[in-house]
Amino acid sequence: MQNCPHCNEPGLSVSRKLTLGPANAANCENCGKKIGVPSSAIWYYLPFFIVAFASWPMDSIVIKGVAWPLAFIGICYVQLKLPLVKR
Predict the structure, then answer these.
(1) Which DSSP state fits 55?
(2) How do 26-27 and 10-12 pair as beta strands?
(3) DSSP assignment, residue 83?
(4) Which ranges of 1-87 would DSSP assign to H, the alpha helix?
(5) Distance between CA atoms of 15 and 17, rounded to whole angstroms?
(6) pLDDT at position 63, please?
């Protein structure tokens, strides 16, 4: 569980944090207030999107088979490391 920035208690599951984005928020399970990730998070995802979309037109299944999972793992890692903020 991730700590809520409002009540500083565990209020958000790891799986729910993975679904958050700069444009959406979640409610804390303890206090019910809105929490989310910073709006600047989109810049952290950008390199992974570039890798994934740059490999799209390539014919090599090996390149796609490596680039896409690495991009997905990278985005998940960044998402888990982002701090939660008040909304």
Answers:
(1) S
(2) unpaired
(3) P
(4) 14-18, 41-54, 61-81
(5) 5
(6) 83
Residue showing tokens 């998940």: 76
pLDDT of residue 48: 83
pLDDT digits (tens, 9 = 90+) for 12-22: 999 999 888 88
Which is nearest to 46 in space by CA: 71, 27, 24? 71
CB contact at 8 A, 62 and 37:
no
Q: 27: which strand partners?
A: 34
Matching residue, tokens 């958050």: 20
13: its two tokens: 């599951």
What's the predicted TM-score (pTM) here?
Answer: 0.75
Residue 6 is classified by DSSP as T
Residue 35 token pair: 């929490």
Determine the 3-state secondary structure of 8 from DSSP.
coil
Q: What are the tokens at 73?
A: 């793992």
Nearest to 84 by CA among 59, 1, 63, 67: 1
